[in-house]
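forwarding from the other thread:

> can someone predict this with zinc ion?

sure thing
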Amino acid sequence: MSWWRRADNPRPVAVAPSLLSADILHLQEEIEAVDAAGADLLHLDIMDGHFVDNLSYGPHVAAAVSAASSLPVDCHLMVDDPATYAPRFVQAGARCVSFHLEVEVDHRALLEEIRRSGARAGLVINPSTALDEKLHRPLLSSCDLFLVMSVHPGYGGQPFDGSVLGKLERLRQWREQDGLDLALEIDGGIDERTAPRAVAAGADILVSGSAFFRQKDYGEMVRRLRGDWSGS
Ligand code: DX5
Ligand code: ZN
């Protein structure tokens, strides 16, 4: 059983609601509702106001969210200094910590450090960054997850950029050729319309913020995003 999929998920696609679009004044109820809806992971967006021009939560909030949820917390670090912050989010209970290819850091060393500390480690690529075989493919053996951004990071509610789907296709190919155990995730503008395109290109995990939390019935949304329309 994959770490990123819930045991009772009948499909090969996982859903990770992004708490950025949840009702912040009722976070506990939202977390419980997401869990009851059958989501696989909780996606937590960490923004430092430098790497992206927005601010979100710190380790204190991540620790409270981890403690309140039985779902694994999937922490997406949009920060300039992941070497300082990744260990703090592991400490806060994140099951997976991902950071961006665009930041200046020894990517492999940090991925391995995250793994050694007991969490899963991931890399993230922005829409404007090209996937480079020479530079990026060798890093995949140190990754548990690779996140392809389908919007420029910083805000929820932006339109999906389908031009990034080729990156998922290439990553899927490299994963197969290199025999890697790697989860492919997509983040930005995912809804019932864009999810099938992402899954067809190779996405295993769908992050969904505004489209997910706009729905009244979160359980229905989890099923629809996974491609199961039987309940509708
Ligand atoms: C964007 C974040 C996303 C965001 C997705 O910087 O990484 O996780 O919450 O929101 P939607 O699904 O609304 O694009
Ligand atoms: Zn995110």
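The longest helix spans residues 165-178. thats all i got for now
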